[in-house]
Amino acid sequence: MSKSNTIFRIVFRSFPISPSKNTFVSRTIQRRTLTTIANDMTVDMTATDHETETETTPTQTTWSSKMIAWQAHSYSTIDDLVLTSNARSPTMVAAHEVLVRVKASSVNPLDVLMAEGFGQVLLGTIRQAQQMSLHKPVEFPLTLGRDFCGEIIAKGVKVKSFDVGDVVMGVVPPFHQGCHSEFVAVPEGLVAKKPDHLTIEEAAGLLYTGMTAWSALKLVGGLYIWKATNKNVLVIGGSGGVGNCAIQLLKHWGAKVTTTCDSTAINLVKGLGPDNVIDYTAKDARQQLEEHGKYDIILDAAGISYNKIGVYTPLLKGWACSTFITLRSPILHNTDSYGLVGGMVKNAIDLLVPNILSGAVFKGSSIRWGTFLPIECGIKELAKLAEEKKILIPLEKTFKFKDLKDAYKRVQDGHLRGKVIITFDKPSMDKARLTN
Ligand SMILES: NC(=O)c1ccc[n+]([C@@H]2O[C@H](COP(=O)([O-])OP(=O)(O)OC[C@H]3O[C@@H](n4cnc5c(N)ncnc54)[C@H](OP(=O)(O)O)[C@@H]3O)[C@@H](O)[C@H]2O)c1
Fold first, then answer.
1. Which distant-in-sequence residues (6+ apart) come within 8 Å of 291 by Cβ?
2. Residues near ligand 1 with C-beta < 6 Å?
3. pLDDT at 69
4. CB 411 within 8 A of CB 242
5. Which end of the chain is more exposed for a tag (fewer CB within 10 A), N or C?
């Protein structure tokens, strides 16, 4: 099978489909049952099996119980997030899903933005397409949180790689209910066993930023096709979560890596193994960037503003298919501002204009948009590297579950040096159960 076919298959399999709404898909999905249910669950989670015996109308295996979660009831500010013990528990909708009791999760910049409504139009449209509904789905109450570490407490019959009781790390795509909640259900392809030497907190912070870096470099940057050895890569913002992962992945793949960070982060970033670290606040920062250039790939892992990309494009190699990858694509912002159709038109303009005005296209280079993609082979590679101690996950700070809003504020304040983690500690969970 070709590489592109493999990627397509993996991406497609990563997005669970609701079989009850889809008779075409339903023929291919066998009747599912929960093979096991953990005995030591702290909430009453009796499985309610609504299944019929027919192959063509499979239905969902539904948890009827409630769980503890932080939720948004409208798009507002972080302060309006609500802690409840009455949230609806997740539903396993396919036989290849696992149900996980979350022990720790990270907070990403996307969580803060989504709480304020970022991406609501496009993410809402994807949810609607998944449900094959003519009506816009009601997204509230919305649970945020994109990556986690926890224990598998139930699994579908087609899950072969994991057992109940396994401690796994995983990711949840942004158009799904997140994991800042007691339980989360995800396809088995989106989880990997936690390496023994990693703490729960370290494992919880690896996969979202890791897969953002992996997807941007491998798929958008072309390293899935071209070997990274002999590539000269600049990572802008080596001090943050995505930057940390990008540096380590690139070094593992054999690239030459130059990265930028603030003077206060230089020691941390040097420990990740790049060839050159440049203090972006230094007077001669530009000169240093030029000395180590020109670059095959420039990855912006700092979230520099879109109109400043032109400052960096002259550092790209000419006529070498070199690429500037920004993770701040305007896709979600444009669809929020102009609607789905208008937003797509604006997206096309926003992709073309900087490529032309920066002169990138006139020397065979391009400005491209990178994004997180939940791809099974990437998750497996990250898990293997973590297992082999080839990837470190620096942590900025760990917060208790009850202090989730403080964790969000820490991410909102910026200048992070690694991941912000929330632990689902027992006192917080017990208190939430009693008081909410
Ligand atoms: N599209 C997607 O799917 C996706 C997914 C994940 C992340 N992202 C985006 O990617 C960016 C990075 O994410 P993250 O989770 O790694 O964020 P993060 O942990 O907040 O890291 C950003 C890092 O960049 C540093 N920085 C800021 N300005 C800089 C500059 N001019 N030069 C060099 N370093 C600079 C910051 O520290 P100092 O300010 O102290 O220098 C911070 O350490 C964010 O904009 C995020 O929204 C996009």
1. none
2. 108-110, 209, 212, 236-237, 239-243, 260-262, 280, 301-304, 327-329, 371-372, 414-416
3. 98
4. no
5. N
